[in-house]
Amino acid sequence: MRTIVITGGTDGMGAALARHYLAVGHRVVVIGRSGAKFDALVTTTARRHPSAPDRAEFIAADLSLVADSRRVVEHLRENYDRIDALVLAASFIRQRRHVTPEGHEASWSLFFLGKYLFVTRLADLLRASERPVIVNMAVPGARADAIDFDDLEMVDGFTFRRSNAQQRRANELLGILATEQNPDLGYITWGPDRLVRSSFAGEVGMGMKVAAAVLAPLLGRSPEDAIRPIVDIIDTPAPGRAAYRGARALPLTGGAHDEKDAIRLASAVEKVL
Protein backbone atom coordinates (compact mmCIF):
# COMPACT_ATOMS: atom_id res chain seq x y z
CA MET A 1 0.00 0.00 0.00
CA ARG A 2 1.42 3.36 -1.03
CA THR A 3 0.91 6.65 0.78
CA ILE A 4 -0.36 9.45 -1.47
CA VAL A 5 -0.44 13.01 -0.08
CA ILE A 6 -2.58 15.53 -1.97
CA THR A 7 -2.87 19.23 -1.23
CA GLY A 8 -6.08 20.73 -2.56
CA GLY A 9 -7.59 17.27 -2.55
CA THR A 10 -11.23 18.16 -1.93
CA ASP A 11 -11.98 19.79 -5.31
CA GLY A 12 -11.37 19.27 -8.99
CA MET A 13 -8.43 17.15 -10.06
CA GLY A 14 -7.11 16.82 -6.51
CA ALA A 15 -10.39 15.24 -5.41
CA ALA A 16 -10.44 13.01 -8.49
CA LEU A 17 -6.96 11.75 -7.61
CA ALA A 18 -8.02 11.12 -4.02
CA ARG A 19 -11.03 9.10 -5.16
CA HIS A 20 -8.92 7.12 -7.61
CA TYR A 21 -6.23 6.12 -5.13
CA LEU A 22 -8.72 5.27 -2.40
CA ALA A 23 -10.58 3.11 -4.91
CA VAL A 24 -7.47 1.15 -5.87
CA GLY A 25 -6.50 0.48 -2.27
CA HIS A 26 -3.87 3.03 -1.27
CA ARG A 27 -3.60 5.30 1.74
CA VAL A 28 -4.55 8.89 0.90
CA VAL A 29 -3.90 12.02 2.95
CA VAL A 30 -5.90 15.03 1.78
CA ILE A 31 -5.02 18.57 2.82
CA GLY A 32 -7.68 21.19 2.24
CA ARG A 33 -10.09 23.68 3.72
CA SER A 34 -13.40 21.79 3.63
CA GLY A 35 -13.91 18.83 5.90
CA ALA A 36 -17.45 18.50 4.58
CA LYS A 37 -16.20 18.02 1.01
CA PHE A 38 -13.69 15.44 2.22
CA ASP A 39 -16.40 13.54 4.11
CA ALA A 40 -18.58 13.51 1.00
CA LEU A 41 -15.66 12.28 -1.11
CA VAL A 42 -14.92 9.41 1.27
CA THR A 43 -18.59 8.49 1.69
CA THR A 44 -19.09 8.29 -2.06
CA THR A 45 -15.95 6.17 -2.54
CA ALA A 46 -16.87 3.87 0.37
CA ARG A 47 -20.08 2.79 -1.36
CA ARG A 48 -18.02 0.65 -3.71
CA HIS A 49 -14.86 0.36 -1.61
CA PRO A 50 -15.83 -0.12 2.05
CA SER A 51 -12.26 0.08 3.35
CA ALA A 52 -11.76 3.60 1.97
CA PRO A 53 -12.51 5.42 5.27
CA ASP A 54 -9.81 3.39 7.02
CA ARG A 55 -7.23 4.53 4.48
CA ALA A 56 -8.19 8.21 4.29
CA GLU A 57 -7.06 11.13 6.43
CA PHE A 58 -8.04 14.79 6.20
CA ILE A 59 -5.88 17.64 7.50
CA ALA A 60 -7.63 21.01 7.57
CA ALA A 61 -5.36 23.86 6.52
CA ASP A 62 -5.20 27.17 4.70
CA LEU A 63 -2.00 26.69 2.74
CA SER A 64 -1.66 30.37 1.97
CA LEU A 65 -0.53 30.61 5.59
CA VAL A 66 3.04 29.51 6.22
CA ALA A 67 2.12 28.47 9.77
CA ASP A 68 -0.53 26.09 8.45
CA SER A 69 1.85 24.58 5.89
CA ARG A 70 4.45 24.11 8.60
CA ARG A 71 1.86 22.49 10.92
CA VAL A 72 0.80 20.04 8.21
CA VAL A 73 4.39 19.12 7.44
CA GLU A 74 5.08 18.44 11.12
CA HIS A 75 1.94 16.29 11.35
CA LEU A 76 3.05 14.21 8.39
CA ARG A 77 6.56 13.81 9.78
CA GLU A 78 5.18 12.67 13.15
CA ASN A 79 2.61 10.23 11.78
CA TYR A 80 4.08 8.71 8.62
CA ASP A 81 7.36 6.98 7.90
CA ARG A 82 7.10 7.22 4.12
CA ILE A 83 5.47 9.27 1.38
CA ASP A 84 5.35 7.65 -2.05
CA ALA A 85 3.65 10.45 -3.98
CA LEU A 86 3.20 14.11 -3.14
CA VAL A 87 0.69 15.96 -5.30
CA LEU A 88 0.73 19.75 -4.94
CA ALA A 89 -2.66 20.80 -6.29
CA ALA A 90 -3.94 23.47 -3.87
CA SER A 91 -5.19 26.53 -5.75
CA PHE A 92 -6.90 29.83 -5.06
CA ILE A 93 -6.67 32.35 -7.86
CA ARG A 94 -6.20 36.04 -7.07
CA GLN A 95 -6.16 38.69 -9.75
CA ARG A 96 -4.90 41.36 -7.33
CA ARG A 97 -2.13 41.53 -4.76
CA HIS A 98 -3.33 40.42 -1.34
CA VAL A 99 -1.32 40.30 1.89
CA THR A 100 -1.93 37.48 4.39
CA PRO A 101 -2.11 38.07 8.15
CA GLU A 102 1.49 36.82 8.25
CA GLY A 103 2.58 39.64 5.93
CA HIS A 104 3.23 37.54 2.80
CA GLU A 105 1.74 38.10 -0.63
CA ALA A 106 -1.02 35.48 -0.69
CA SER A 107 -0.42 33.95 -4.12
CA TRP A 108 3.33 33.68 -3.57
CA SER A 109 2.69 32.09 -0.19
CA LEU A 110 0.18 29.53 -1.51
CA PHE A 111 1.81 28.68 -4.81
CA PHE A 112 5.43 28.71 -3.73
CA LEU A 113 6.31 29.21 -0.05
CA GLY A 114 3.98 26.42 1.05
CA LYS A 115 5.15 24.12 -1.73
CA TYR A 116 8.75 24.84 -0.84
CA LEU A 117 8.07 23.74 2.73
CA PHE A 118 6.37 20.53 1.60
CA VAL A 119 9.13 19.61 -0.84
CA THR A 120 12.11 20.42 1.36
CA ARG A 121 10.79 19.44 4.80
CA LEU A 122 9.28 16.15 3.61
CA ALA A 123 12.39 15.11 1.69
CA ASP A 124 13.26 12.38 4.22
CA LEU A 125 9.81 10.77 3.96
CA LEU A 126 10.03 10.82 0.16
CA ARG A 127 13.53 9.39 0.30
CA ALA A 128 12.14 6.45 2.30
CA SER A 129 10.01 5.41 -0.70
CA GLU A 130 11.39 3.06 -3.32
CA ARG A 131 9.94 5.14 -6.17
CA PRO A 132 9.12 8.62 -4.85
CA VAL A 133 7.42 11.19 -7.05
CA ILE A 134 6.24 14.77 -6.72
CA VAL A 135 3.62 16.10 -9.12
CA ASN A 136 3.58 19.87 -8.84
CA MET A 137 0.60 21.37 -10.64
CA ALA A 138 2.53 24.45 -11.67
CA VAL A 139 2.08 24.82 -15.42
CA PRO A 140 5.56 24.47 -16.94
CA GLY A 141 7.15 26.75 -19.48
CA ALA A 142 7.61 30.13 -17.76
CA ARG A 143 10.52 32.25 -18.98
CA ALA A 144 13.86 31.60 -17.34
CA ASP A 145 14.02 35.26 -16.26
CA ALA A 146 10.50 35.37 -14.77
CA ILE A 147 11.69 35.73 -11.17
CA ASP A 148 12.32 39.15 -9.64
CA PHE A 149 14.84 38.20 -6.97
CA ASP A 150 14.82 41.75 -5.61
CA ASP A 151 11.05 41.74 -5.04
CA LEU A 152 9.83 38.15 -4.72
CA GLU A 153 6.53 39.19 -3.13
CA MET A 154 5.92 41.84 -5.80
CA VAL A 155 5.43 44.84 -3.58
CA ASP A 156 5.93 46.95 -6.70
CA GLY A 157 4.34 46.31 -10.07
CA PHE A 158 2.15 43.34 -9.19
CA THR A 159 0.13 41.91 -12.06
CA PHE A 160 -1.55 38.53 -12.28
CA ARG A 161 0.54 37.64 -15.32
CA ARG A 162 3.86 38.49 -13.64
CA SER A 163 2.86 36.78 -10.41
CA ASN A 164 1.76 33.62 -12.21
CA ALA A 165 4.93 33.43 -14.30
CA GLN A 166 7.17 33.92 -11.26
CA GLN A 167 5.42 31.19 -9.25
CA ARG A 168 5.67 28.75 -12.15
CA ARG A 169 9.36 29.41 -12.72
CA ALA A 170 10.12 29.19 -9.01
CA ASN A 171 8.50 25.75 -8.87
CA GLU A 172 10.67 24.59 -11.76
CA LEU A 173 13.78 25.74 -9.88
CA LEU A 174 12.48 23.94 -6.80
CA GLY A 175 12.73 20.74 -8.81
CA ILE A 176 16.46 21.29 -9.21
CA LEU A 177 16.90 21.49 -5.45
CA ALA A 178 14.67 18.46 -4.81
CA THR A 179 16.33 16.13 -7.32
CA GLU A 180 19.83 17.15 -6.29
CA GLN A 181 18.98 16.09 -2.74
CA ASN A 182 17.35 12.85 -3.92
CA PRO A 183 18.46 11.51 -7.32
CA ASP A 184 15.79 8.78 -7.12
CA LEU A 185 12.99 11.34 -6.94
CA GLY A 186 10.76 12.06 -9.89
CA TYR A 187 9.77 15.76 -9.92
CA ILE A 188 7.15 16.76 -12.48
CA THR A 189 5.70 20.18 -13.17
CA TRP A 190 2.34 19.51 -14.79
CA GLY A 191 -0.50 21.44 -16.36
CA PRO A 192 -3.65 20.35 -18.19
CA ASP A 193 -3.64 20.46 -21.97
CA ARG A 194 -7.20 21.77 -22.18
CA LEU A 195 -9.94 23.26 -20.05
CA VAL A 196 -11.00 21.17 -17.05
CA ARG A 197 -14.40 21.43 -15.41
CA SER A 198 -13.73 22.92 -11.98
CA SER A 199 -14.97 25.61 -9.62
CA PHE A 200 -12.05 28.00 -10.37
CA ALA A 201 -11.76 28.81 -6.67
CA GLY A 202 -10.65 32.33 -5.98
CA GLU A 203 -11.16 35.96 -6.81
CA VAL A 204 -11.43 35.67 -10.57
CA GLY A 205 -12.29 38.08 -13.35
CA MET A 206 -15.34 38.04 -15.55
CA GLY A 207 -13.61 36.08 -18.30
CA MET A 208 -12.76 33.21 -15.99
CA LYS A 209 -16.23 33.28 -14.46
CA VAL A 210 -17.73 32.94 -17.94
CA ALA A 211 -15.36 30.07 -18.73
CA ALA A 212 -16.31 28.28 -15.53
CA ALA A 213 -20.03 28.80 -15.97
CA VAL A 214 -20.41 28.40 -19.73
CA LEU A 215 -17.36 27.06 -21.56
CA ALA A 216 -16.14 24.47 -19.06
CA PRO A 217 -19.41 22.46 -18.97
CA LEU A 218 -19.53 22.52 -22.78
CA LEU A 219 -15.89 22.10 -23.78
CA GLY A 220 -13.99 21.12 -20.65
CA ARG A 221 -13.03 17.59 -19.75
CA SER A 222 -14.00 16.02 -16.47
CA PRO A 223 -11.45 15.95 -13.63
CA GLU A 224 -11.53 12.14 -13.81
CA ASP A 225 -10.46 12.27 -17.45
CA ALA A 226 -7.92 15.05 -16.89
CA ILE A 227 -6.03 13.13 -14.19
CA ARG A 228 -5.28 10.08 -16.32
CA PRO A 229 -1.80 11.34 -17.32
CA ILE A 230 -1.07 12.17 -13.67
CA VAL A 231 -2.04 8.67 -12.59
CA ASP A 232 0.33 7.25 -15.21
CA ILE A 233 3.14 9.46 -13.88
CA ILE A 234 2.51 8.47 -10.26
CA ASP A 235 2.16 4.77 -11.05
CA THR A 236 5.30 4.58 -13.21
CA PRO A 237 7.58 7.32 -11.89
CA ALA A 238 10.97 7.98 -13.41
CA PRO A 239 13.81 9.68 -11.53
CA GLY A 240 14.68 13.24 -12.44
CA ARG A 241 12.86 16.36 -13.54
CA ALA A 242 10.21 16.45 -16.25
CA ALA A 243 7.45 18.72 -17.52
CA TYR A 244 4.08 17.83 -19.03
CA ARG A 245 0.97 19.41 -20.48
CA GLY A 246 -1.56 16.62 -20.19
CA ALA A 247 0.17 13.49 -21.45
CA ARG A 248 2.59 15.43 -23.68
CA ALA A 249 6.14 15.79 -22.42
CA LEU A 250 7.66 19.25 -22.79
CA PRO A 251 11.29 20.32 -22.80
CA LEU A 252 12.40 21.79 -19.50
CA THR A 253 12.92 25.53 -19.55
CA GLY A 254 16.64 26.20 -19.36
CA GLY A 255 18.38 29.35 -18.28
CA ALA A 256 22.02 30.34 -18.19
CA HIS A 257 22.16 30.20 -14.38
CA ASP A 258 19.53 27.64 -13.36
CA GLU A 259 21.46 26.01 -10.49
CA LYS A 260 22.68 29.34 -9.16
CA ASP A 261 19.15 30.73 -9.43
CA ALA A 262 17.76 27.73 -7.53
CA ILE A 263 20.29 28.24 -4.72
CA ARG A 264 19.62 31.99 -4.67
CA LEU A 265 15.88 31.38 -4.46
CA ALA A 266 16.26 28.86 -1.62
CA SER A 267 18.51 31.24 0.30
CA ALA A 268 15.97 34.06 0.00
CA VAL A 269 13.05 31.86 1.01
CA GLU A 270 14.79 30.31 4.01
CA LYS A 271 15.30 33.80 5.42
CA VAL A 272 11.54 34.42 5.58
CA LEU A 273 10.56 30.93 6.74
- Which term fits the overall shape? globular
On the 0-100 scale, what is the average pLDDT? Answer: 93
Arrangement of strands in the largest sheet: 3-2-1-4-6-7-9-10
CATH architecture: 3-Layer(aba) Sandwich
The third-level CATH topology is: Rossmann fold
> Kindly, what is the distance between the CA atoms of the first and last residues, rounded to a whole number of angstroms?
33 Å
Total beta strands: 10
**What CATH first level would be assigned?**
Alpha Beta
The name of the CATH superfamily reads: NAD(P)-binding Rossmann-like Domain
Spans of at least 5 consecutive residues with low confidence: none
**SS summary, helix count:** 10
Provide the succession of SSEs: EHEHEHEEHHEHEEHHHEEH
**Major sheet, described briefly?**
8 strands, mixed
Structural class: alpha/beta
Query: How big is the Rg?
Result: 18 Å
- Compute the number of structural domains: 1
What can you see in these coordinates?
Keywords: Oxidoreductase. The chain is of the alpha/beta class and 273 residues long. The protein has one domain (3-272): Rossmann fold. Helices cover 45% and strands 16% of the residues. The chain contains ten helices and ten strands. It has helices at 12-23, 35-46, 66-79, 106-121, 123-127, 160-181, 206-219, 223-226, 228-235, 258-272; strands at residues 3-7, 27-32, 56-60, 85-88, 93-94, 133-136, 186-191, 202-203, 240-245, 248-250. β1, α1 (12-23) and β2 form a beta-alpha-beta unit. α4 packs parallel to α6 (160-181).
